[in-house]
């Protein structure tokens, strides 16, 4: 039974998805799934895959734990797809071992920073419709970007029209800090909230004082209207 189980495990671990081609490259397994009209990441990728090419397909999302069982994976090519969403745990389990990750030429507008935590791979992000904001700026600060493609990370949308169509690196080199803009926006919102509470307190105090004055005035008038209890002088 143990022998049969071992055979099944080895067979499953070395099997190849029907839509892909598995081959050896420099003694390591390469899984080639380029241009196979895939709409999602195959579930049966061999566990011993070192190189995985999923480029030129129609994949729209990278879900959490999509590659977690691929502990030997070093190179991952997801370029020229239709990826719009990347989950925060998309590369969980493989981030430490990846050497290159190609996400260029997709439809990515933003990427969660937690998706890139512990990622040591050289990252390609060019030719995506990026929304230039603090989150993307932080990605540039923390990720290992491929220097040959960093100039092609362009602002498709941005908080200010003058940044649209410009390389993000050029905008940042000009002294723009999207994170400080977000901080100022947060500070203004907090100031407005505090001012609103302060105005409410002042209004309450004013109403309270006016109400007390009105009550005092009515009480004094009432006392004046009472008949005098003093005896007339003899």
UniProtKB/TrEMBL annotation:
Q: Where are the transmembrane segments?
A: 188-209
- Any Pfam family from its record, for instance, is LRRNT
Give the similarity note. Answer: Belongs to the LRRC3 family.
Output the Gene Ontology cellular-component terms: plasma membrane
InterPro entries in UniProt? Leu-rich_rpt (IPR001611), Leu-rich_rpt_typical-subtyp (IPR003591), LRR_dom_sf (IPR032675), LRRNT (IPR000372)
For this UniProt record, the keywords arranged alphabetically read as follows: Glycoprotein, Leucine-rich repeat, Membrane, Repeat, Signal, Transmembrane, Transmembrane helix
The residues covered by the LRRNT domain are 15-51
Q: Where in the cell is it found?
A: Membrane
* Chief location of this protein within or outside the cell: membrane
Give a GO molecular function annotation for the protein: signaling receptor activity
Source organism of this protein record: Nothocercus nigrocapillus
Specify the signal sequence span: 1-22
What membrane topology was assigned to this protein in its record?
A: Single-pass membrane protein
Q: Report the superkingdom from the record.
A: Eukaryota
**Protein's GO biological process:** signal transduction
Protein's name according to its UniProt entry: LRRC3 protein
């Amino acid at each position: 039974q143990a022998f049969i189980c071992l055979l099944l495990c080895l067979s499953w671990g070395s099997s190849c998805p029907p839509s892909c081609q598995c081959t050896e490259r420099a003694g390591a397994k390469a899984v080639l799934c380029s241009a196979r009209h895939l709409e999602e990441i195959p579930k049966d990728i061999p566990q011993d895959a070192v190189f995985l090419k999923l480029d030129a397909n129609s994949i729209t999302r990278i879900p959490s734990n999509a590659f977690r069982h691929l502990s030997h994976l070093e190179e991952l090519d997801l370029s020229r797809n239709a990826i719009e969403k990347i989950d925060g745990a998309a590369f969980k389990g493989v981030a430490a071992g990846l050497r290159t990750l190609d996400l260029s030429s997709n439809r990515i507008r933003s990427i969660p920073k937690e998706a890139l935590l512990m990622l040591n791979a050289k990252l390609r992000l060019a030719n995506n419709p990026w929304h230039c904001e603090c989150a993307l700026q932080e990605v540039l600060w923390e990720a290992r970007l491929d220097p040959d493609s960093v100039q092609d990370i362009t602002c498709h949308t941005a908080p200010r029209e003058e940044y649209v169509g410009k390389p993000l690196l050029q905008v940042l080199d000009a002294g723009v800090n999207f994170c400080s803009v977000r901080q100022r926006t947060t500070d203004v919102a907090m100031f407005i909230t505090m001012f609103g509470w302060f105005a409410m307190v002042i209004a309450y105090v004013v109403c309270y004082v006016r109400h007390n004055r009105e009550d005092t005035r009515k009480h004094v008038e009432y006392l004046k209207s009472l008949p005098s209890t003093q005896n007339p002088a003899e």
